[in-house]
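lol ok so funny story. i was supposed to be doing the assay writeup but got distracted and ended up predicting the structure for this chain instead. priorities right. anyway since i did it might as well share w the group, maybe its usefull for someone
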Amino acid sequence: MRGAIRHATAIATVVAAVGCGAHTPGAGGRPDGDRALATRSTGDGRPPLSVIVREGDAKGAVAVAVTTAGVAPERGALAGVSLAALVEARLAARGVDVSAVGSWDGWRLRALVDSPADMARIVDAVRVALLTPVAPDEAALAVVARKAAALARRPLLDPALVDVASCTGEAYSAGDATAPRPAELEAWRRAAHGLGRVAIATTGSAALADSAAHTLGRAPAWPRAAAVTAAPGPGAPTAVYAASGEVEAGGARVVVTARTTSPERAVAAAPALGDPRGPLASRLAALDAPGRVRSVIATAHVDGGCLATTIDLSARDLASDAPTRIATAAALARQELAVEIADGAAPTDLGRQLIERAADPRDAAERAAWWSLAGRRAGPDDQLTMAIAVGVAALRDAPTAAGAADAIRTEIDRATIAWHAPVVEARTFVERGQGETWVLLASPCATGPESSGDAGIGAAVAMAAAAQAAESARDARFEPFVGVDGIGVLAHGPARSGESPQAHARRLADSAARAFAADAIEPRRAAQARIALLVHADETDSRALAALAGALAPTHPSWIAPHGTLFGLAGISDESVAVRASSVRRGPLRVAVLANADAAQAEAAVRAVDRWVARHPGESRACPALAAASPPRAGTYAVDLPAGAASEVLIGVPLPPADAAARTKATWLAAALDGADGLLAHALGGDPGATAAGTPLARTWSAAVLGAPQTPSLVVRLAGPDANIDASVAQVRALLDRLRQGALRDEDGARAAAAIARAHLAAALEPRARIIDLWRGDASPAAPSIDDLRAFAASTLHDEAFVIVAARPPRPPVDRTSAR
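and the output, tada:
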């Protein structure tokens, strides 16, 4: 199609066409059309003249655009092709070298121009060729017959594709394909070649434009053409046709058309929809039956714009459950077109931009002529009419069943409803005036399905996805979110210059959701994540925690250590990481958004995330059933460290599972133990009398609750010189025993309350902590009384239930000779 902008990609041809359309001046045309294109006055009763003044081209150019909308629509492109052939033949007979091309609802002509005199000669010849009545015996009719015969060899495959052809403007024959009789051709000429249906444009110097304007102005006034009628909309929302010969046997082709109020909206959306790394291509590639974008064509018409997206599905992927798989791709594409058209920015001077991008002066003139005819459909700006055409190619010797069309239509209806129904649980909050917007998308299934053989595989998924999202980010940050209660991707960043709050949120949400919920995990990213996790798992703290997790949750260590263990990480592969990512995406997902503008911004982020999540009609999303957890294995465990390394000890106290009240009391008890003035500090060295030399038994100490919700445990950590580590453990065990016997005092409870308040304040001051809290949705539990804490300590702190992990270097051998 001439007059189009073509972007060839690996998967699609994007055509943002200044296509066949028109408007009657003063009757429904775009109000900004004259501002978008420069014009020259030609006087009353003459067609409009658009002018592109530029230098550097070897020659200038002139172009003519004519719309045949509503002229013999039952004959397909025959009217446009025949009129183009008529005019081209007439001009050739006069020695004027032009090229004319017909399309479904119009035709266009263009020519190179040497000088103002040449421009005057060509414009006058074109005027005469357009306005001269058809004679029954004129020589041009032979050319018309040949072009009509050629068009007849390109029939529209099925009547169901009339809406598609009308949208794209491509030339197909329909109905009676025989060449028009002279009287028919004359009727078509009178209807199309007149005011309201013809536009002219020039490219080159101002002198060329002046010559064209003067030539038109001094010639007689033009007759008025037949009133332009808009093309009818699709007969049905979904059409199914036989596509044998068009696609491989057993395969399918889906064409989604979208008619917009203004041509700018359709044309502006085409590049993003055809981008091989864009949302549409990525979402289709993530389906069970991956779809391939074959083409995206956007055109300007008399009544707005139209965009047609063609998607192919292979026979191999449709070998089973074909109607559902076809419907899923069709409904997804329909949704993506609607989102891209609604959310994309369409500049009012888009026509000017398209024209300026043309390198060939003929292309520039042709685009200007077509764009000056583009009209606007009456109605609100968000009015959108969509239709789907599905072509199915039957396998050899196995024709498509009569009920296949009904099955596909039914499944498309179900899939459309499924795509419109949100599947992502959303939690949002507005913090006006903040410098960044934050989005956290994660799976609440977290490490639940992991066992000792793949502990850490969920962390690998989160890390790989975050790395993929960050790869193309400029001013946004993407981080893995890894916890025993969730794995996902956290995104945050400021708005770009001129970016609206909703576009800002969509950009962050799109990137996070695409990486975590749609795009396949790249093998190199999976490998990088595994290596990083293995390095982390080999650190002293991680090895000690892994040993503790292996005792507290013997068959599910990642319920305590979500980043995994050396043993578990060594057992996973790049392929298993990709499989785990697919499993996560089929389960429930939750998104939290901290918007910095308003609620509409937060809603835009949620919608952006939700559209990336593949879904099937009637599906139920739930985390896999958890395998029964083995009971904790109390006792003392050793972790060998290199010589000279500092020792570390973890003391784990199992808590009752699924007991939120117990976890709250354990958190308060940990707060009483922790800190520079906590019970551990006094037991280990905060009190100068704790040791004979007045030095601490341990260098660092802490207490926290880990492993919630599956295997919650109160964990005390000690680190220091190996010579003191045994004494440190003895002191802590004695302290816990005293607490079990009721040694907690009122001031201990007050200190715990103050520590928890400080922790809450610190979290409230940090947006990263705020969005994680929002995602978790945990309400602050009521503070337990000191009697509650004493009762909890009495029932929980039994020494025989403790799991103790001692990570220490080898001890020097004992010199028994010197001892004697």
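The longest helix spans residues 322-343. The two ends are 103 Å apart (CA to CA).
back to the writeup now i swear
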